[in-house]
Fold:
Amino acid sequence: NAGVTQTPKFRILKIGQSMTLQCTQDMNHNYMYWYRQDPGMGLKLIYYSVGAGITDKGEVPNGYNVSRSTTEDFPLRLELAAPSQTSVYFCASLRAPTGELFFGEGSRLTVL
Amino acid sequence: DAKTTQPTSMDCAEGRAANLPCNHSTISGNEYVYWYRQIHSQGPQYIIHGLKNNETNEMASLIITEDRKSSTLILPHATLRDTAVYYCIVRVPSTSGTYKYIFGTGTRLKVLA
Structure:
């Protein structure tokens, strides 16, 4: 099993550009999450999903959109990138019986 | 949402037990305490979780006070590879039917040779 896979690992965007961070998991987990982590800080919840077609906002959803068309994929869309969105983004899926989160390796995004 | 409070940083000598405290005074009766750690800039890694009983696994032990307002993660014999940021999290039920895991700023543990 690959677990949770995120792409790209690194990306530089110009202000106002848009992009999608991809996240896929092969563990058949229903629940998935997107977090961002600013330098020296903890993780902030952006969006989460309980299954295909169902998403909900977390602590810091502004400037982002998500979709969940399949169990495996949970892409995060950044519209009109701003320097404040410079961060490391982590995707995670949840093994429900234990409540254990499995994280991807992260996507490091810089907006200039 | 319940919040957690942890010391910003701690040092521990290699081979000694590392005791990492966490306060979660607003925790509700059905909310679990989870511990994760993050080594360098990798994705956080699950360590252990509990509701009200003490728990132990191959990585660590979790001691939860009887009033559930605080807990302590114990790494029994810390090694240099245990140097990481440790997060204490209270898992909160969401209206969507899943759970939200709200991370704080964590404790930066440095294991000293």
Remarks:
- The beta strands of chain B are 9-13, 18-23, 33-38, 45-50, 55-56, 61-64, 70-75, 84-93, 99-102, 107-112.
- The two ends of chain B are 39 Å apart (CA to CA).
- The mean pLDDT of chain B is 92.
- The interface with chain A takes residues 32, 34, 36, 41-46, 49, 87, 91, 94-106 of chain B (CB under 8 Å).
